[in-house]
């Protein structure tokens, strides 16, 4: 009698492309464990990620807009879920491993800071003499070292590689990891248009005509066009790619967003304040490390104080970082309740 996991492995062999990463072919985990009778290794990774504390904190971390007035702006969590859905759709269209794709997507931003990319730039400046700060490297550290009270999640090699290589110069080892590199960009470029219009930074009519002609005028049209193009182009190329024309227009779309939104003074007007908040908190815990939770004091003893403070500060949500700054630096009589 086959277990549910064994039945799933047999189904993968039958259904998936020769280019897919089969669960039974996984390199495995850093620390060997008995297999689950029900779930494949990649399904277990999905569950470990969505049940971890870092994943829950994503709902209180900014995507682009700091402290937006309204309930419908994206957070780091909703971005992650959009990446996962786009990634699974592409994987299904190419007969690749949807579970591996989803696991990478759900874990790819676990190490992101509070205050979106402004927070990442702040920590990168603070740590400039020590190799800087990159959220993909921190995401891997979260799943390897910080979760489960320092034991880590012990994820599979393929998921760990996809998390680390979802951005940066190093390409992922799997097709599924390459999907998430694209799905991340497809998600954030399109949902940031939506949020920028909601914030009054953009109007729909500001999007250049050539981009509208290439991808459509609505959020759903643009995503659907990019997904279809990627499935069709990748199927014929044997690698995850957009067609040359779509790639050219997508680069133009991304440049438009950087020029109009990400580098827009209205969107970035609070960035100096973010640096002040995070650098102030960082310096405080360098002086008073005993005020950090026990987990981070232990890291300080094993790996150095600055490493521990970086882990603590980068894991804070927007709201908690503001609360900490208020407690540490603002007289109680002046604190906003």
What report would you give on this structure?
The protein has 337 residues and is mostly helical. The chain has a single domain (37-337), classed as Hypothetical protein af1432 (Orthogonal Bundle). 62% of the residues lie in helices and 0% in strands. It contains 17 helices and no strands. The chain has helices spanning 4-15, 41-50, 53-57, 76-93, 98-107, 116-126, 135-146, 157-164, 175-199, 209-215, 219-237, 244-262, 265-268, 271-287, 294-303, 305-314, 318-329. The longest helix has 25 residues, at 175-199. The chain is flat. It starts with a helix and ends in an 8-residue tail after the last helix. The mean pLDDT is 92.
Short description:
With 337 residues, this protein is mainly α. The protein has helices at 4-15, 41-50, 53-57, 76-93, 98-107, 116-126, 135-146, 157-164, 175-199, 209-215, 219-237, 244-262, 265-268, 271-287, 294-303, 305-314, 318-329.
